[in-house]
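Hello Y.,

Per our agreement to keep a running log of every chain we model this quarter, I'm adding this entry. I've kept the format consistent with earlier entries: sequence first, then predicted structure.
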Amino acid sequence: MDVLIVSENTPKSQWERGRIRAKILKAIDVFAPFEIHIVTPKEFE
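Predicted structure for the entry above:
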């Protein structure tokens, strides 16, 4: 299941975005069936 997070506070660095994704997955369950995408509003357009 894809989860899209659109935020103006999204870091520019893909590495930092990966760290955020990892923290989210760790909090909910590393084996949860989610693919998390983090983008800025401009990237969403």
